[in-house]
């Protein structure tokens, strides 16, 4: 079922909104892992809701699995017979929301995604989740929410933390891996099979692998052979650099104690790369069930239709007698027939975090003449084996299309007086491959034998305006390869320096620890550990707008609250977030006698580093007005780097449970009482009246009702049940 809803609707699943789009001519959903998620529909002009289909309204449709999903209308094309609607998933609303300057530091995936979502310029309904344990950092300056999460930049979430996005209306999850199919079905690699297109690339294969660690550390045996080495015409040598594998030169240095241990680690990493498929060619596959259904082979592949995005398929390549496992990374779903019509198999976008950890360089054994020959063979095969297609001619234009109707065609060659172009998205483009009458050629990749140029876009500065002729003969190829090698070596050296610096920073950060030296740092334990007037406050507003992990804070009163922390001499950092509530109030903190004025009326981060020489830190919160300022997530840590807030090592602050040196407190959302446990005993208090309901302390027990199922002894009097009688006996 496909329904239409108002643009501001947030409840899509419990009602039909403006109505059901039951007359749709077509409805196609495209979803790509970490990429596009959209729906395209065609709706006839004579249908009831035709005039209701306007920009920004929401279409809700089945997508082949799980809940129906919401898509916001972005583009509308009207013809004499229908409207063609293109809508993107509601997730892309985040593209309209800005992150001005957001810097999540040393956070795991779940904390990072929620940090990003909480720092947009205006409120939204999206929630985030991630199961990624990796703790890292990224900075987003004037980026929208979509760019920050799944953008192509190296600092986007999916590049820095890794993971694959799951978009479920307003719920956003980025997890290590979508689905984990344990049903891997097998298809055979074949050329010229209508409905299944294979693209096999051998340029990334390595079967004889030379691992190299830091400072040219190598194995005595030099190479490790892949189990598949004999599947190819000759061994394919690859050098794998693992620059983080090193031997200690000093006791405090990071690394392995012995060369033997380091070499064993090199062997382990090579085996890991072999398991990841470095000894297998790269394969991309497209399965078009519509085209395949017209062939006799369809019956052999019909069982693939019950797979979903993220699932795996084995492709058996007879030429080299090996299986290549591929994942479904993109799907096309017909929401009217409720069937997947196309799968695209291959690799998910690169995880920058994983790649940067190990800075690998994989040399390729392919020459440009060979590459050109491969390209020619591929082009010849594609053109000479083409099946189907339709020719459509108008006044002054010629179209070659994949359907007989220009309004429904997707793959289009268009030829007119202004040029020749190819589009994958219909007759209106975009035309990403084109030759135009003004002499321009537009293409993602050009393979050629000899090319004479006077200017190459993007290289004009490098060429200093000189006319050059690049003849791709062996001599020039050798020169270019040498230059490229030098460039790669420079990049590798730079990357190694960057990683070394990063390692040093990480090591320093590790040494300075992470405990909060303040006791009762958010006032959860009322006046404990503080001198003066302490009042605490808890609010969802604080949790939402300050990115506070606790949601709790001090609310400054017309008084001073002071804590003295005794420490070893050294460098320390004090940090918190604050918000001044009353403009005319005078609010400040004093640290070892130095005053800092708190003047900002919006949530503002405070950070100061100090050198301690007299073994103590005196921290004071001061105000001349009641309820004048929030101080949130107060933190004192060793070192000159601010760390994420946490309670003191001797405290527990977790939901309904709070514990410090004074005792334990347990509350509940379903009870109007709380349990208090201290050194002198246990009490139960009413949370509303704050009266003690019952207590068991060192001075005795007090409660309204007492039930003893066995026997009780009261001041020398024994009370017990004997048979059906209750006996009272003196113990004196």
CATH topology of the domain at 531-664: Jelly Rolls
Shape: globular
Question: N-to-C terminal Cα separation, in Å?
Answer: 84 Å
CATH structural class of the domain at 531-664: Mainly Beta
Average pLDDT figure:
81
Low-confidence stretches: 349-371, 452-474, 502-514
Write a brief caption for the model:
With 732 residues, the protein is α+β, with helices and mostly antiparallel strands. Among the domains are: 3-92, no CATH class; 97-175; 368-447, no CATH class; 448-511; 531-664, Jelly Rolls, CATH 2.60.120; 679-732, no CATH class.
Explain the overall architecture:
It is a single chain. The chain has 732 residues and is α+β, with helices and mostly antiparallel strands. Among the domains are: 90 residues, no CATH class; 79 residues; 80 residues, no CATH class; 64 residues; 134 residues, Jelly Rolls (Sandwich), CATH 2.60.120; 54 residues, no CATH class. The chain is 16% helix and 37% strand. It contains 11 helices and 49 strands. Strand 25 and strand 26 form a beta hairpin. The longest helix has 38 residues.
Attribute tags:
732 residues, alpha+beta, twelve-stranded mixed sheet, seven-stranded antiparallel sheet, 16% helix, 37% strand
Layout of secondary structure:
Elements: E1 3-5, E2 19-20, E3 26-32, E4 37-44, E5 58-61, E6 69-78, E7 82-89, E8 98-102, H1 109-118, E9 127-130, E10 140-144, H2 145-150, H3 157-160, E11 164-168, E12 171-175, E13 185-188, E14 196-201, E15 208-212, E16 224-225, E17 237-241, H4 259-275, E18 282-288, H5 289-292, H6 298-301, E19 312-317, E20 322-334, E21 339-346, H7 352-358, H8 368-384, E22 390-394, E23 397-401, E24 412-416, E25 419-423, E26 431-436, E27 441-442, E28 450-453, H9 460-463, E29 468-471, H10 474-511, E30 531-532, E31 536-538, H11 540-545, E32 552-555, E33 560-566, E34 570-580, E35 587-591, E36 594-597, E37 604-612, E38 616-623, E39 629-638, E40 652-654, E41 657-660, E42 663-666, E43 673-678, E44 681-686, E45 692-697, E46 700-702, E47 711-714, E48 717-722, E49 725-730
Parallel strand pairs: 9-12, 13-19, 15-17
Antiparallel strand pairs: 1-5, 3-4, 3-20, 4-7, 5-6, 6-7, 8-10, 11-12, 14-18, 15-16, 18-21, 19-20, 20-21, 22-23, 23-24, 24-25, 25-26, 26-27, 28-29, 30-33, 31-32, 32-39, 33-38, 34-37, 34-39, 35-36, 35-38, 40-41, 41-42, 42-43, 43-44, 44-45, 45-46, 47-48, 48-49
